[in-house]
Amino acid sequence: MATLSLFLSLSLLISAFNFAEPQSFIGVNYGQAADNLPPPAATVNLLKSTTIGKVRLYGADGAIIKALAGTGIEIVIGAANSEIPALASDLNSATAWVNSNVVPYYPASNITLITVGNEVLMTMDQGLISQLLPAMRNVQNALNWAFLGGKVRVSTVHSMAVLSQSYPPSSGLFNPVFQDPLRGLLEFQKDNGSPFTVNPYPFFAYQSDPRPEMLAFCLFQPNSGHVDSGNGIMYMNMFDAQVDAVRSALNAMGFRDVEIMIAETGWPYHGDNNEVGPSIENARAYNGNLIAHLRSMVGTPLMPGKSVDTYIFALYDENLKSGPASERAFGLFKPDLSMIYDVGLSKAGLTPSTTTPANPSPKPTAASWCVPKVGVSDAQLQADLDYACGQGIDCGPIQPGGACFEPNTVSSHAAFAMNLYFQTSAKNPGDCDFSQTATLTSINPSYNACIYPGGST
Hints:
Blueprint: H1 2-20, E1 23-30, H2 40-48, E2 52-57, H3 62-67, E3 74-79, H4 84-89, H5 91-101, E4 111-118, H6 126-145, E5 153-159, E6 163-165, E7 173-174, H7 176-192, E8 196-199, H8 202-208, H9 212-218, E9 226-227, E10 234-235, H10 238-252, E11 260-265, H11 280-296, E12 299-300, E13 303-304, E14 310-312, E15 369-372, H12 378-389, H13 410-424, E16 438-441
Parallel strand pairs: 1-2, 1-14, 2-3, 3-4, 4-5, 5-8, 8-11, 11-14
Antiparallel strand pairs: 6-7, 9-10, 12-13, 15-16
Helix pairs in contact: 5-6, 6-7, 11-12, 12-13
């Protein structure tokens, strides 16, 4: 037992170190439509206490950019829609913009991307749409003249509504109305290596189809999955389905080499009485399971083996926003810097405790471990893995370099995570269900240096 305890302690330390490092694929949106936000220096200290590796600003606030100097955190800054006409018509305006908002801060502040405009195509303003590409070109030329070409790239942010078809994912297509301007934008982005940035929100998909099974699909929770009729791929969550729909649309236009970046995604923790879906539980589940999914590095079915750069909406609530109450309830942190709910981003609290159900079922009395049932598909096991790791357990041992990383298979990683979730819960049989994909066993599945916690209860 002493050896086992020592091993588990070392595993926790190693995994905590891995998770304590900022993760380049996890970002957060830092909006300013509020009158109660903490000063930039306090926010930077908050960010440094998390594993967030990227921050997206909607503008180019010099105080925030300067406060982020020396942190290594990647910064996305933005030019507003209202700035596009000037940037498009006059290269000198673009040069002045870059000289004011980039040159004084780079490289101490790690600015990596400029987004020119936000969801411009959806304004249906043909004048503004026609000016978007010239504005992006002028900003890129200004960066080149400042010797920042290839270091700071230029993109623009799109709504998922630019797709006329997104389901099944393999049939993803851009709306023909937008194909001409999109082709020009994508040619520019392909030439300059900038990502296609888009805002997928499973929350809105659930609002349009509020069935329990759709909620589980949107929250990365165990579910029966959706089969793509075009290619037979099983999808276990809406995020992957939406991202792959964008991938299919890009491929259909011949832009297979253009990367995708998720500029915004999130889930509100509060809403009006007539809004379907907002709650603390759902927001924690979506964002926590999304982060676990990104950390698994499994990718999406059409883009396996890597995690798309994803910016969660949002760091704070923005109390000056209009619209339904949910618009003002997407924040992860309060203005006093405390968490609204925990999704496992804090370096100091990587393994939050779980709560015991009020009416627990009878516990097993023999030594037991929770393992996947025989014949369960990898797609279903990946959903189980995402769910378990999203509940605050320590999945470090199945990360690269961890004692249980090898064999590097979905089934092996899922088995470890499912068992750890069961062991750190109240050890009720119901905690080893995972939508009927798991079962209890008295056979210890530990192997080599990979120790599965378990034993009599």
